[in-house]
Write a structure and sequence with these properties.
69% of the residues lie in helices and 0% in strands. It has 143 residues and is mainly α.
C-alpha cells in the first residue's frame, strides 16, 4: 500500500468523523430542522462524503468517534470553516446564530462566551476575513 493511499484513507475517515460530529450537534435537540438538513446536504459533498456514507452516518452518527480539536488554534480553524459554510449556505437570522452557537459549544468553547464568539465569527466571515485575520480577530475581540 502506498503512503498516499494511507493518507487518503485517513483523510476520508477524519472527514466522516467530522461530519458525524456535526450531525451529532444537529441532533442534540432530538431532531434535525429543515435548515440543518439543507446544511448537511450541502456539507457532505464538500467533505467528500458519499451518498451511502451520508445515509449511514445519519442513521448511526453515534458510532463515529468525536474528534475534538486538540488546541485552541485548531478549534478556531474549525470554527472558521463552519462559520464560512453557514454564511455561504445563506442561513440567516436566528437560525444562523443558533446553528453556529451549537457548533461553538461542540467545539469546546465555554458556553458563557459562545454568544460573543458567534457574533464576532459571523462579523469576520461577512467581512471575508481569511483564516489568519479570523483567528486574530477572535483572539483579540476584547481589545
Amino acid at each position: 500500500m502506498a503512503i498516499s493511499d494511507l493518507f487518503d484513507r485517513e483523510f476520508r475517515k477524519r472527514n466522516k468523523d467530522h461530519f458525524a460530529s456535526i450531525v451529532r450537534v444537529a441532533m442534540s435537540d432530538g431532531t434535525i430542522s429543515e435548515n440543518e438538513q439543507k446544511f448537511l446536504d450541502r456539507l457532505a459533498p464538500r467533505l467528500n462524503i458519499s451518498d451511502a456514507d451520508y445515509k449511514k452516518i445519519l442513521k448511526d452518527y453515534e458510532s463515529h468517534p468525536i474528534n475534538a480539536p486538540n488546541s485552541y488554534d485548531q478549534r478556531l480553524e474549525r470554527l472558521y470553516d463552519l462559520a464560512r459554510m453557514v454564511w455561504a449556505d445563506k442561513i440567516r437570522g436566528k437560525n444562523e446564530v443558533k446553528l453556529l452557537r451549537r457548533f461553538c459549544v461542540a467545539l469546546g468553547f465555554h458556553a458563557v462566551n459562545v454568544k460573543y464568539i458567534t457574533k464576532k465569527a459571523l462579523e469576520l466571515v461577512k467581512q471575508d476575513a481569511d483564516l489568519e485575520d479570523f483567528v486574530y480577530g477572535i483572539k483579540n475581540m476584547n481589545q
